[in-house]
Each structure stands twice: as C-alpha cells, then as structure tokens.
Write a structure and sequence with these properties.
alpha+beta, Aminopeptidase, 5-stranded mixed β-sheet
Length: about 280
C-alpha cells in the first residue's frame, strides 16, 4: 500500500492475510503494552472486523511485522462529524522501531484507506499525559480534540497503563481539511509540517523544577496552556504518586475547558494549547 526508506529497509503497509499473520498482531499487542491475555484483541475478532469492512493494516520491514493499525467504521456523534467515519482503536509499533516514523506511516496510510472508501473523518483515544503521542497527533497530523473521557477503560495495567485511571482525549481528524491535506503532501515529500505561529495562552498547568505539576487557581479567559510530564512512562514505573498528580492536574484543567466550548488545537513546548474555535474548523 505504501512504503518509505531504502528498498532493503522500507516500511511496507499492507493488509495482513491468513491466521498466522493475524495471530502476529496478538503477539505485538503483548510486546507493546505488556497486556495480559484478557486485554488482547484476539485474531478471530480482528479477522471478523476485517471481513466486515473494517481497517486492519500491518507495517512490515523485510516481511517482519513492526507495527499495525486496527479500526472499525463509526457513526457521527458530534456536530463536527458529517457522514460516517472510522474509529482507530489501536496503532502499535514494535519496541525498538519507535521514533523511526512507523506510527506516522500507519496514520497516513489510514487516511488514504478512509478517503478511498468515502470516509471523511477519523477518531481515536490517547492518554493526555503522554506528550509524545500528543505531539504526533496535533503537530504531525493536525487533529483537534473536543472530548475528555474520565477513566474511559477503567484502570489499565501494563507498562503504558501504569495502574492509573485511563483518562483519554479523543482525537478528531478531519481527513479532508486543508491543513491536513497540506501535512499529507509534506509527509509524502519527506518534509516536516510547517511551523505555525501559536497564540501565547495562559499556563494553567506548568511543570515545576521538581517535575510535579503546578496548577493555577483561576482559569483566565482566552487561550489556555496545559503542560504534561516530561516522561509519563517513567513516572508510571518509578513514581506513581507524581503520575497520579499529573493525571488529576491535566484532567481538572482540560475537561472543564472543553465543557465550556474550548478545543485542544495544538501541542507545543511541552503542553497543549486550548482555544475557542472559530470558523468552519470549529
């Protein structure tokens, strides 16, 4: 479907075929998230979704599975969604391959897959304290977020859950938006997104020198900034008390703002930007 890199080490994206290739997706879930068997989406279920018209894409390097994406058709559930779309439930990249652009290749392949089928938007959930995911979503892909889900999946075990409440932001990706199309063109040319000037905003959560969150008592009007921890995974593993403090600080800053009509529009300088959207992208 798509590839990147040198011919010998290119990332190729294609649909997994047959039981063995689908079972490999189970193994990769365990390696990526450290999940027990109860948390793994089984190959039989993925096969059923694939047969029913859902999205299942594998990323391969020299026939080795290094990542995959899995999603299913979704009905509109907000005023910003027109027609049907896709909910991307999982995108996983094998440890040792992270930071090499595999996740971005999979997301842009998902966009192509959707547009070929007349689907104009995608959603997915992600942990709001994970800055790396936030930067991918807002800076590289151009998503917006208008929904904050408190403890959406229940307490999550494993390396990326940390036994914390599973708060999630919902990424909404308008696949046909001009700024998204421009990012797609630059990605296809091997270029990073063009930097865009952002309003200053008032920091309502800052990162203290000791690594803990510093929370403002009053949220001012106008654009807002919300910091996230420098390394959430390390906190999950080594300092769960500070990890929980960050979870609650980010929740108490973002969730009420979204309820007041703000949207998360960018991630830069270690934190989110929240604005009251105007115009057709609102």
């Amino acid at each position: 479907m798509t590839s990147a890199g040198t011919p010998a080490g290119a990332v190729q994206v294609r649909e997994p075929q047959g039981p063995a290739q689908l079972r490999a997706l189970e193994d990769l879930q365990i390696r990526v998230w450290g999940a027990g068997e109860r948390e793994v989406v089984p190959a039989s279920h993925i096969r059923a979704v694939q047969h029913a018209g859902g999205l299942v894409l594998g990323a391969y390097v020299d026939d080795e599975l290094v990542g995959f994406a899995y999603g299913f058709p979704a009905l509109p559930h907000g005023p910003w969604e027109r027609g049907n779309g896709l909910h991307s439930h999982m995108v996983a990249v094998r440890p040792g391959r992270r930071g090499a652009g595999v996740g971005r290749i999979l997301k842009w392949a998902q966009r192509t897959w959707c547009l070929e089928r007349g689907l104009g938007w995608m959603t997915w959930t992600f942990d709001p304290v994970q800055g790396g995911n936030a930067r991918l979503n807002f800076h590289h892909l151009g998503v917006r977020s208008r929904e904050y889900l408190v403890d959406f999946y229940g307490t999550m075990p494993g390396d990326l859950g940390g036994g914390q409440p599973s708060d999630r932001l919902v990424a909404h990706w308008d696949l046909e938006a001009q700024e998204v199309a421009q990012r797609a063109e630059r990605f296809a040319m091997g270029l990073a997104p063009e930097p865009a000037p952002l309003p200053a905003g008032a920091w309502v959560v800052r990162r203290r020198p000791d690594g803990r969150p510093d929370v403002a008592e009053v949220h001012p009007a106008g654009p807002l900034r919300v910091a996230v921890p420098e390394d959430a995974n390390r906190l999950f593993r080594d300092d769960p008390e500070t990890a929980l403090a960050w979870r609650l600080a980010v929740r108490e800053a973002i969730a009420p703002a979204l309820a007041r009509g703000y949207a998360v529009t960018a991630f830069d300088a270690g934190g989110y930007l929240l604005e009251r959207p105007q115009g057709p992208r609102s």
